Amino acid sequence: MSLFDKQTPLEKYIAEVKGYLPSESRNDIAEELQTNIEAKISDMPKTSGAAKGDAAIIQLLSDYGHPLRVAAQYQGKGRSLIGPDFYPFYRTAIVASLSISTVILIALIAIDFFFTLDIGDVSIVWMFVNTYIYIIGIITGGFFLAERIIERNHFLDSWSPSKTAPPDKALATAWGAIFSVVAAITMLVILNMVNLEHSTAVLMGQTRNPFHTLVFWMKIQLVFLIPQYVYLVIDQNWSRAQLYLRTVTEAILLTGCLITLRMDTSAFRSIYPELPDSLFSIFNLALWLIIIGILISVAVYWRRKAEVAFTRSSQQ
Amino acid sequence: MSEKLEAMRLELRRGILILAVLSELRNEQYGYSLRKALAEVNIDIEEGTLYPLVRRLKTYGLLNSRWSNEEGRKRHYYKISERGKEILTVLKSDWEKLNTSITTIAETRT
User: Fold this and answer.
1) Domain match, A26 and A160 both
2) Is the CB of B51 less than 8 angstroms away from the CB of A69?
3) How far is CA A116 from the centre of its chain?
4) Which residues in B lie closer than 8 A to residue A74 (C-beta atoms)?
């Protein structure tokens, strides 16, 4: 058991609130908050008859709300880069994307070590630092803009029932969309580290390096996908225009997969004779799985959209 | 509808919260005792709203405060200041006028 575990739930809570408070008033506010909560806890049996066990105290602290919100209410002036409403999502997005990218980078280094693939002429330390800077920068910028766009456009005020599908027919969840944004940005950053020439020859598979051709097509697709996922965080019900855009985006990757499948890789294989044949078999299998996955996902999206349209028309 | 009603009641109470807090703090109180005192007169305000508000009123110079250690328990006590009393007088006057206006509207329109 660590030292941290020996703290009571209240002490942990106050410590977290303190972490978000400005230094000049941190101790004073935290001490006052703690004494007020302790007074309430000591009053609990009289008011509710509940036992003063950890579970009851945790429930009481839950009613107080997220430590960030509590701290934000005490500040009241000025504003931070990411506001309290978005901060929990922002923090989760940063942690998730850094974790995912770390796993992917380690996997890439392992593949490079065993198969000597050309994943970019950079040092390992710089590879990590570069990726983390990209990810933190993109996510911070994205949340900063999203927060201000939502405020400026009075997004919630302009909401209309006509824009909303029945809740059980929503095509995505906000958390699913956030995860997709994080995964897509991470993927783009990682792919960007592959040292490839951004030319038509690579795009059309004329350089005979199937990995570079596929990576190029995937990068194009991700550039289209990321804004769509960001929009999905705000509105989980897709309009018809968004659905067409999604279909076009999937078509980009589908094209890339088909071009890569048709490539003559013999020249490439002669340059890298150490690459095992099984790697190419797995690569081709992965391409077919992507193609099948895209076709299924597009079919499912259209079917769901049709269901929503049918439900709406039958309700009118 | 009950949710909407609750939201409207909350909004209504929020408008008179400063008046209620300044009035109640003519007697010295600490955070939790102030909340209980307000709840006893049916002004039930979330702690997350009340405690920061009290600190803001102190920052504006409307309240005085002191730390006290009674029976091993530290408490941060607040009491209305002279400036706070002046503000309270103005707010009370405004409230009485509003109350009269609302009563008049309610009675003449029914």
Assistant:
1) no
2) no
3) 30
4) 51-52, 55
